[in-house]
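<discrete_fold_record>
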Amino acid sequence: MENARESLQLAKEESDRVSQLTFPPHRPHLDSSFYEYYALRGIRVDRVEPGYVSCTFKVPSRLIDRNGNLASGAVANLVDEMGGALVHVEGLPMNVSVDMSISYLSTAKLDDELEIVSTLLGRKGGYSGTLVIVRNKLTGELIAEGRHSLFGKHASKM
């Protein structure tokens, strides 16, 4: 338990940097939220087809863990966002995640350029299944593979 506490505790320098962060109040539908600014900034959409989205993402310093790797939570966030973006229908509420399973196969370092590909595995009613692959664009090394299940309302047929 003590090891877990130590690994989660911020060092004085880290604590000081966090306390100095300032963000203006969020204006919905006008500004990016802190989450969007912090976690999603830098994702570049390269190709979109029905059931397929391909993006590029250069690993920024803000998402690096203490070991110098892209944080596993950041990888999970990419799987969540890319799976959700693939099945989102404009004008309908966002789908909710039902289940997500991620296999972490390797690590990514600062400034590595990643290719993130999301494909639709299938859709039944409001339920959709996606596969998200994260790989190092330069080496082709597989960083993570995620399966993401989502549920959303369909437009009324009336």
